[in-house]
Amino acid sequence: MTTRFGRWFRGFGVIGMVALVAAMVIVCAAPRAHAQPFAAVVMDARTGEILYQTDNSTSRLHPASLTKMMTLYIAFEALENGEISEDTPVRISRHAASQPPSRLGLRAGQTIAFRYLIRAAALRSANDAAAAIAEALEGSVPAFAERMNRTARAIGMTRTTFRNPHGLTTDGHLSTARDMSILGRQLYFDYPGYYGIFSRRSDNAGIATVNNTNRLFLGSYRGADGIKTGFTNAAGYNLTAMAERNGVRLIVTVFGARSSQDRLRRVSQLMDRGFRDAPRRAAIRRPARPDYVRGADDRGSGPAAGRVIRLQTAPTTSRFPRARPQPGEAPAAELIAALRDGIDEVIEEIREPDPSTDTDDSGVAPGVTSEEPEESDAPEGLTEAVEQVLVAAVAPERSPLPRGRPRSEAVALAAADTDTEEAEIPVAARAGSGVLGTEDYVALAESGVQVPVTPPARPEDLVAALVGDATEAPAAEAVALADVTAGDGALTIPGLPPIPLADGAEAPAALPEAQAETRIAALEAPAEAPLMPSLEPVASELTVDGDGRILWRDEELLQALSHENPEEPVLAPTIVLTSSSDTEEVAATPTPEIVTHVSTSGGRLWRVELGRFNTPFDAERTLLRVALSEAGTLRNGVRRVTARGGRHVAEVNSLTQEEAQLACLRLAARDQDCTVVDPS
Predict the structure, then answer these.
(1) C-alpha dihedral sign at 430, 435, 439, 442
(2) What is the pLDDT of residues 72-83, one digit of tens each?
(3) Is 35 helix (H, G, I), strand (E, B) or coil?
(4) Residue 162 · residue 70 · CB < 8 Å
(5) Which of 41, 34, 53 has the alpha carbon at shortest distance from 256?
(6) Within 10 Å of residue 544's Cβ, how many Cβ atoms?
């Protein structure tokens, strides 16, 4: 039995071990996969009505990076109120730069525009960008958390408590699926101009291009256009999503999914259920803007009821400029600091350290991260430990050597006879090349190892000539050809090393000194320019008629005409047609011009048809709704309702081909009928 078990175990091999370990890990990890409770809400964004919710939709759970929806809501509010602008440079603190992933990669001390922090927090879900937004608006994370809680109470998020702007797991930082749906709806209605950020697949964030963490839902579900994902180990995979079909807009919030694929599957199912149950027509009830004077619990009585707030706007200091220092007086330290170039550096030197921002402590427990792990195609439940076991099982013990290149001439020479080898080794050694034995070289070449060949070194005199200063080089002297000598199988030229002659080559005979000097003089003499052909002299006497024309006699032509043969005329006969009047003008034959197309629209000849309707009112309403939703692509078009075949056609004219095709693609994604009509 032992022998049979041994044969079975050897046959099973590594695959059996891997399967056994994988099964153990999956079984051990199964309870942890469902450690986060699942909660979900389906809300009609038009009315705020709850269409479906789980039993624990109001349970306080970890919201993870869904928190950044509130961070961005306050950022948009600050932009609207003029507290900050999109181009305001924000200085990154050590606290913001020390936030754990996911991150944009901000460094302490650098400055970045506020608009890039918004993009990084909305798309990349960057924790360092969210912390930088908080410090830019309120000075510190605790102060910003108070503003987040104040805003949450003002819009009706009664079971939410914020402790940070990014959503990393912290004691007391809790919310509900219902409250996050309320926040997503409030953000959509209050700041529709900024809501489009959540539908971008990627964008420029100043120091990097960031991709949307929600692109899986945006690219797979028809009608999807936002808004935010979230993940931590304590929260699981969260998502607040929004989609619109046929005028019906839904919000779905999911807490505690097991993976990104599980999150997408659950959200898609809830969206499909909501679109089936939601009424086709419903009056839009916009949520009220947050009222920071009356709290969420105010009922018309109490300290907040009828309260009048007076703002102290009188100046407390004189607005006149300070007097300039008199001659002989030492300038004040403030004036010297103001004249310095680096104002930010001066502020950093004189300000007192802020313990909330001048620290490398991120404010969260070590190991907490909101970076979603990359998921492979392995079955769900196959954890990282199992993947490591699989990699170790199939990985080779060592990296294989690359194939050797084809044998070069050096290998062939190395395999030649011993005499050739012994004759070439001293030459190679004198040239600076390494010497390798023939047997070792052939063995390495046959084993597939590429043997490097060291190129011969340049002569020392040539290297010195190349690196020397050209200005200090002595002037070249002419070398007489008579000084060139040949002997001992080499050609000797003054100033150059001997040149060996090939076997059987004869040395050039020495030239006589007189002949050599003659050749050198001929070479040094400048070449004479070629003579230009001379021009015929111009006649000194010219005859001019009354009209200013020059008259001359062609003697050669007259001589030829005097001996002309009638059968071989000197001049060919020419027929010249003239009019009877010098003032009569011959009318030119007009060239026919063919006009194929006349356009005053500059090439904007395409149009899109949005459907055929029974009444012009329905067509006009469709045109208006499409114009509001596709203002970016159809803003240059001309809207028109045309009667064709007893129906009313809603169309947009005067578009380019690109605008028409892009508009129809976007409208088709929203389940709107659209047809592109070309000029033909």
Answers:
(1) negative
(2) 999 999 999 999
(3) coil
(4) yes
(5) 34
(6) 9
Distance CA 619, CA 636 (A): 19
| Residue 503 clears pLDDT 70, i.e. is over it | no
Average pLDDT over residues 459-477: 49
Q: Active-site residue among 93, 98, 102, 125? A: 125
> CA triplet 262, 268, 270: central angle to 5 degrees?
105
Question: Which residues have a Cβ under 8 Å from the Cβ of 16 and sit 6 or more positions away?
Answer: 9
Do residues 125 and 108 touch, judged by C-beta distance below 8 A? no
- Cα–Cα–Cα angle for 231, 235, 240, rounded to 5 degrees: 60
Nearest to 72 by CA among 175, 173, 148, 159: 148
Phi, psi of 192 (to 5 degrees): -65, -25
Angle between helices 141-154 and 68-81 in degrees, nearest 10: 90
Instruction: Identify the CA nearest to 239 among candidates 219, 212, 222, 260.
Output: 260
In angstroms, the CA 399 to CA 200 distance is 43
d(CA 520, CA 478): 9
Q: With contact defined as beta carbons under 8 Å apart, do 168 and 368 qualify?
A: yes
Query: Is the omega angle on the peptide bond into residue 579 within 30 degrees of 0, that is, cis?
Result: no
65 as an active site residue: the answer is yes
pLDDT tens-digit readout, 424-444: 445 444 444 455 556 665 666
Q: Max CA-CA distance within the chain? A: 138
Most confidently predicted of 140-149, 441-450, 476-485, 509-518: 140-149
Out of 57, 65, 181, 268, pick the active-site residue: 65
pLDDT the model gives residue 64: 93
> Nearest 5°: CA angle at 72, between 635 and 221?
60
DSSP of 610-660, one letter per residue? Answer: EEEESSHHHHHHHHHHHHHHTHHHHTTSEEEEEEETTEEEEEEEEE-HHHH
Position 209, amino acid: T
More confident of the two residues 597 and 337? 337
**Annotation marks residue 125 as catalytic:** yes
Query: 168, 108, 156: which is closest to 132 by C-alpha?
Result: 108
Phi, psi of 479, deg, nearest 5: -105, 120
Look at the block and give the residue holding tokens 């899986």: 216
Mean pLDDT lowest among 224-238, 300-314, 386-400, 665-679: 386-400
SS3 content of the chain, % helix, strand, coil (to 5): 40, 15, 50
The 3-state DSSP class for residue 472 equals helix
Question: Residue 630 has which token pair?
Answer: 């596709």
Is 447 among the residues known to form the active site? no
Contact in structure between 121 and 227 (CB atoms under 8 Å) = no
What is the rounded average pLDDT of the residues 50-68? 94
Pairing of strands 248-257, 236-245: antiparallel
> In sequence order, what are the residues at sequence separation of 6 or more whose Cβ sits closer than 8 angstroms to the Cβ of residue 110?
91, 92
- Over the Cα atoms of the chain, what is R_g? 45
Would you say the pTM of this structure is higher than 0.85? Answer: no
Q: Which amino acid is at 671?
A: D
Look at the alpha carbons of 191, 72, 135, 304 in this order and tell me if their dihedral is positive or negative: positive
